[in-house]
Specification:
The protein has 751 residues and is mostly helical. Among the domains are: 48-236, Leucine-rich Repeat Variant (Alpha Horseshoe), CATH 1.25.10; 678-750, no CATH class. Helices cover 57% and strands 1% of the residues. The protein has helices at residues 24-28, 44-66, 77-92, 100-108, 114-122, 132-139, 149-161, 170-174, 176-180, 189-199, 207-220, 224-236, 258-274, 294-297, 305-317, 337-342, 360-368, 372-389, 401-418, 423-432, 442-449, 460-474, 477-509, 515-541, 546-559, 562-566, 576-583, 588-613, 625-642, 647-650, 661-666, 685-695, 710-721, 725-734, 740-746, and strands spanning 329-330, 347-348. A two-stranded parallel ribbon has the order 1-2. Helix 16 (337-342) links the parallel strand 1 (329-330) and strand 2. Helix 4 runs antiparallel to helix 5, helix 5 (114-122) runs parallel beside helix 7 and helix 18 runs parallel beside helix 20 (423-432). It is elongated and about 110 Å long. It starts with 23 loop residues before the first helix and ends in a 5-residue tail after the last helix.
């Protein structure tokens, strides 16, 4: 490998070999060369400051380029001055592309002390992109062992941290074998594995490399970085990797961004605040970006100016170029859905998988092509990002809460698009919920909870239900309602997933509900029981608040229809702690909801019984007699309350409202038997009052006993006209009424 000789040209230290790179005059103004007048409103004072900094940087780079012999940092004020200049400008603005060739060569050629080289590498922060040619040139210094092992290690870490700032990667891919040879160094092995993980393509997987990794594993044990690379190799070529690898780990690689992370964030924030025009194109083109945290930048597909120029030239010359059937198709050129279809088997995904989350075309690809290597990369990246950026798990991270909210929102939208949850997000929730205060990023966390995948996971109670219950019982009414809404959406997502699984299995092999799927149905039932438990306690804590009761009944509107709507053999009645507060509620909306829910329970149970009798079962399971018994107990209580005025006498539920007449007489209520029928019920009395005003406008006594016989029927029609559809469906389906003729003959109805 021959090293580029541009560093030897001292007369023109900042020549730009490629027209696509920015020149110094453009960098001086904080933008790319562009015919548009992008900085017309900059004040002259700012321009002078920029020119001064530019001149200082030119002098510093020229000095480093001319250094031939070892110079002592302590004894040379000139070296100290120029090194401080590079560090200062790198921190404030970032360095332009054309200085990386010189500074990388100086840091790796071994002429200066390690202290200087370390400071240089730590100051190599790009303002826009890093030329690939500069990186390849610097890699050549690793061949001649001019720099120490610590500098080599720091350089590899820098390469990982800046990987997606490099404008091209083809030449880096060609160096895959060279980087692979560094695995023999135990100190460098974890970071080299990380770099190889980013560079690996299918053609990179070779039998001799697999054997080498297996030898290292035998020598060092199952290290997470080796496992990550072997897992990726196995996904690309399963026939070559025959060993069984452990399950996914939360963290594969060590964090390589420490020395540069804060500096990059500072530069991007200052550039955004100081520039009155479009920001420098860090990792994308023509897209406005918010404050740049690590994950924020990685949500944009890496695209250099060179890539944009190539794309533009290709469009001008021949549109067919974009639909080329070459070995790989860069995703930054993917513009339309038709391009996706043309190149679906040739796409080269970005090494930084975070950019997939915001690209609908790539999400479509993930839906169509189940490429496990993509999911593995995304699993690693998302898991590590969530772990490092979580504002309630990491010290001093609350200042970035708004940014973390945006990131969680992006993840949630991607899950909605894919209609499935990410396993790394699930692990994040299980790990962070015990530490969560229920306030930070509340809506985002609860939304992510709705996409927790359904799997045969016996530890769901300890990982999700227990920490969630602790927050639920100790938080506000609004939080309780938000949790119930999220759990309802989680239930619906689980049910939809189960339906799809049943349909696909039945189409392929005449599927019958096996042990595994039966366990998943039990997981759904466990969720329903959990919601019933927390709802019962919450109603007691909140004094049967109507607002809370609405969300609880809304959850059971989904539960009551599981058998018919989702074709699943499950029907779970609400607990008494939910049913009776709804039945005796003072709000007509809650009572109407309960009536509708009981109507749907009846419809589902009748359908299930019919299927059992005619041997046309939806699934080979029968509802237990306890389900029918519990429904009948609730039905007797409802009819006794709303219709026959005998709830206190005939309610047979163990936790019902049955009371002896002697106890009722002691209450001092004269008409206690009719206290909860559809006329006197606290939730219905307002309707009865309005009905009396319309039926007897001249009567101011408001005698509710007048509502009987024919007036009773008129009153029912009046209630139905007020939108109480649930009440109507319940009465018409569950109450056998005497005929209209017999009612007219009798003249009244027993109430």
């Amino acid at each position: 490998m021959q090293r580029r000789q541009s560093s030897k040209n001292s007369k023109q230290p900042l020549q730009v070999p490629h027209s696509s790179q920015t020149d110094l005059s453009a960098w001086r103004k904080g933008g790319r060369t562009d015919p548009e007048k992008s900085l017309q409103n900059h004040q002259s004072r700012n321009s002078q400051v920029n020119e001064s900094k530019q001149d200082s940087l030119e002098q510093a780079v020229s000095y480093f380029e001319k250094v031939q012999n070892r110079v002592s940092l302590k004894k040379s004020e000139v070296l100290q001055k120029h090194l401080a200049t590079v560090e200062s400008i790198a921190l404030q603005k970032g360095l332009p592309p054309e200085v990386f060739d010189v500074l990388l060569n100086v840091a790796l050629d071994g002429k200066l002390a390690d202290a200087v080289n370390t400071r240089l590498l730590k100051s190599l922060i790009p303002a826009s992109v890093i030329p690939e040619t500069s990186v390849v040139s610097s890699v050549s210094w690793l061949c001649v062992s001019k720099c120490s092992g610590s500098i080599q290690l720091l350089f590899i870490r820098w390469l990982i941290a800046m990987f997606d700032f490099i404008d091209h990667k083809e030449q880096l891919h060609a160096l895959y074998g060279f980087f692979f040879s560094f695995l023999q160094d135990e100190k460098m092995c974890p970071y080299v594995c990380h770099l190889l993980y980013l560079l690996t393509r299918k053609e990179s997987v070779k039998p001799f490399r697999i054997r080498r990794l297996l030898d290292l594993q035998a020598k060092m044990g199952m290290q997470p970085h080796l496992q990550a690379l072997l897992s990726l190799y196995k996904l690309f070529c399963p026939e070559l990797v025959s060993i069984t690898l452990p399950g996914k780990m939360k963290t594969y690689f060590k964090n390589s961004e420490g020395p540069w992370k804060a500096a990059i964030n500072t530069i991007r924030q200052r550039n955004r605040e100081n520039s009155p025009v479009s920001q420098l194109l860090f990792l994308g083109t023509a897209q406005h970006q918010s404050r740049k945290r690590k994950w924020n930048t990685q949500l944009i597909i890496p695209a250099s100016s060179a890539n944009v120029n190539i794309l533009a030239e290709g469009k001008e010359k021949n549109h067919v170029d974009l639909y080329s059937t070459s070995e790989s198709f860069p995703v930054e050129q993917l513009q339309t859905f038709s391009q996706l279809l043309q190149n679906i088997h040739h796409l080269e995904f970005p090494s930084q998988m975070g950019s997939v989350l915001t690209n609908p075309l790539l999400l479509h690809y993930m839906n169509c092509i189940k490429d496990e290597s993509i999911y593995l990369r995304l699993y690693y990246w998302m898991g590590q990002t969530l772990q490092e950026e979580c504002t309630w798990c990491v010290v001093d991270s609350y200042q970035y809460e708004e940014e973390f909210k945006d990131f969680l929102e992006t993840v949630y939208k991607a899950e909605c698009f894919l209609q499935e949850g990410f396993s790394s997000c699930e692990e994040f929730l299980y790990k962070s919920l015990p530490l969560w205060d229920g306030f930070c990023c509340r809506s985002q966390v609860l939304r992510l909870m709705t996409w927790i995948p359904l799997r045969g996971f016996s530890e769901m109670k300890s990982h999700l239900y227990d920490p969630l219950a602790q927050l639920f019982f100790t938080s506000s009414l609004y939080f309780k309602c938000s949790v119930l809404e999220s759990l309802k959406e989680l239930l619906q997502n689980w049910l939809n997933w189960l339906v799809i699984q049943l349909d696909s299995e039945s189409d392929s092999q005449g599927y019958s509900l096996n042990t595994t799927l039966s366990g998943l149905v039990n997981m759904v039932a466990e969720l329903v029981h959990f919601v019933g438990w927390i709802s019962t306690i919450a109603l007691r804590l909140e004094s049967n608040a109507t607002f809370l009761l609405y969300f609880i009944l809304d959850f059971y509107e989904t539960v009551c229809d599981i058998y018919l709507r989702y074709n699943l053999p499950m029907l779970i009645m609400p607990p008494p702690g939910v049913f009776y507060p709804a039945l005796l509620s003072m709000d007509s909306v809650s009572l109407n909801q309960l009536c509708y829910i009981m109507y749907r329970y009846r419809t589902n149970l009748v359908a299930a019984k019919k299927n059992e009798l005619i041997k046309k079962k939806i699934l080979p399971f029968k509802f237990s007699s306890q389900t029918y018994q519990e429904y009948n107990q609730y039905l007797i209580a409802m009819v006794g309350c709303l219709w026959t005025s005998s709830a206190f006498q005939k309610d047979i539920h163990p936790q019902g409202i049955r009371l002896d007449d002697e106890v009722l007489k002691k209450t001092g209520v004269q008409e206690f038997k009719t206290g909860f029928n559809i006329v006197y019920h606290p939730a219905m009395m307002g309707y009865a009052l309005l009905f009396l005003q319309q039926a007897w406008p001249d009567d101011n006594t408001f005698n509710f006993s007048l509502i009987k016989g024919r007036k009773w029927n008129w009153y029912l029609e009046y209630l139905y006209a007020q939108g109480l559809k649930g009440l109507k469906l319940f009465i018409e389906s569950s109450i056998n009424r005497v005929s209209q003729a017999s009612q007219r003959k009798e003249g009244n109805v027993q109430v």
